[in-house]
Design goal:
two-stranded antiparallel ribbon, about 425 residues, about 40% helix, alpha/beta, Rossmann fold
Length: about 425
């Protein structure tokens, strides 16, 4: 069963049942994919181009980088630049919005960022023990780096809180430091198991006092099962190979590189191999709006934030070049995926138009956002961001709920021959 935890089995389940005997036309996929869902999209397009109707991919994974070689070498290429913009935006917004700008020690963004890195490096050599509200924690510099990387998924939602926590922690407040360590790896104890079981049984005991501390979700474990099966086999690589990999990741991103390398390390002893694995070529034939056999009915529309912490804009541009006729919408936002990081009427209109007509307007189009990160007069409430805690399908579901007309099947000029 575990050997079937991979994208190819998913596609074969979707593709084969559609091939009914006696059908005059081929059913076609109408698809809106986010993050890993973009990899599913490009893979499906490559394997079954004649099954594709419309396809919008947001937060684009570089399929070649993901499926071949060491894996994930390009993901964090923009994370450090996002953190630079956090500091610049904070000081531009001022102390009423961002408390870090109120510190007498921080005369400007560059000075503040320099002091921040000195503080983090001190945590590397001298970790802090925090007596927390629920449990004690050891906070290291890597914990802070990882939290900042995760926060970068949704800056509009999380940057103001990050600024408050950093201001408190760098001023010596343990509560602020505890919040910054929330990205640290959670190791369950026997007490956590008892609390979870007591909650399930509805028992009245001391274990239910903090019953929200449950065992980790299986979502993370299943995610690693999929990624380790999708990529190249990296089992039994040497220590020097992993050190080189970690150094490469840290060179790519000072903020998130270490955490990204550690995430890949979990595949170093993955014992199972998929029955099938697709590693390219990631491309497709030219589209034909008449829905001709064996070719897509429309080109792909790729979306990207201007800066994305794990699926950089360069990946969207690269993949667009590999799929003929594709277009790229670059939204002037920061965060993971365009539709999930900020609201833009421009982007929404282009997506709606594409699903209706299948037409791509130019090879690359830029869209402004309607709500800036530090602007407190507007809120990101139209849909969820795509942070790990909310799940990858949530932005698609919520976004489509606000645009029900996009659920209509497009009008094809079907070829009946």
């Amino acid at each position: 069963m575990v050997e079937m935890i991979d994208q190819i089995h998913l596609f074969r389940k979707k593709e084969y049942p559609n091939g009914y005997v006696g059908e005059k036309t081929t059913p076609r996929l109408q698809y809106l994919g986010f993050s890993y869902g973009t990899l599913l999209g490009t893979t499906f397009m490559s394997m079954f181009p004649g099954r594709v109707g419309r396809m919008v991919l947001d937060g684009v994974v570089d399929a070649d980088d993901y499926a071949t070689g060491p894996g994930g070498l390009q993901n964090t290429a923009e994370t450090d630049e996002i953190f630079d913009e956090f500091w610049e935006g904070c000081f531009k917004a001022g102390p009423d919005v961002c408390p870090l700008a109120n510190s007498t020690d921080f005369t400007n963004a560059k000075r503040a960022q320099k002091d921040f890195w000195s503080w983090v490096e001190n945590l590397d050599t001298s970790p802090r023990v925090i007596q927390g509200r629920v449990k004690n924690s050891i906070i290291t510099g890597n914990d802070v780096r990882k939290t900042i990387g995760l926060v970068s998924y949704g800056p509009k939602r999380h940057f103001p809180a990050l600024a408050r926590s950093l201001h408190a922690a760098m001023s010596g407040d343990d509560a602020g430091l505890e919040e910054l360590g929330s990205g640290s790896t959670y190791t369950p104890t026997s007490d956590d198991v008892c609390r979870t079981e007591a909650k399930k049984l509805g028992e009245s005991s001391n274990y239910t006092e903090h019953s929200y501390l449950e065992m980790p979700s299986s979502r993370t474990e299943s995610s690693h099962a999929v990624s380790c099966s999708d990529g190249e086999d990296i089992v039994d690589k040497s220590v020097s190979w992993w050190l080189d990999y970690a150094r490469t990741q840290e060179k790519t991103s000072k903020v998130f590189g270490r955490a990204w390398a550690l995430d890949r390390l979990k595949c170093s002893h993955w014992p199972l191999k998929p029955n099938w694995r697709f590693s390219g070529p990631f491309t497709s034939p030219e589209h034909d709006g008449r829905a001709m056999p064996g070719v897509p009915a429309a080109p792909i529309l790729f979306l990207s934030s201007r800066l994305d912490p794990i699926t950089p804009l360069r990946a969207a541009r690269k993949m667009a070049q590999q799929y003929p006729g594709s277009g790229v919408v670059v939204q002037d936002s920061i965060g993971h995926t365009a539709l999930g990081s900020a609201y833009s009427n421009c982007t929404t209109s282009l997506v709606a138009s594409y699903f209706e007509s299948g037409a791509v307007t130019g090879t690359e189009v830029s869209c402004p956002v309607d709500c800036e990160i530090w602007d407190r007069s507007c809120q990101l409430s139209r849909f969820s961001d795509t942070g790990e805690e909310e799940g990858g399908t949530e932005p698609a579901r919520l976004w489509l709920s606000h645009h029900p007309s996009l659920l209509r099947m497009p009008r094809y000029r079907l070829n009946q021959s």
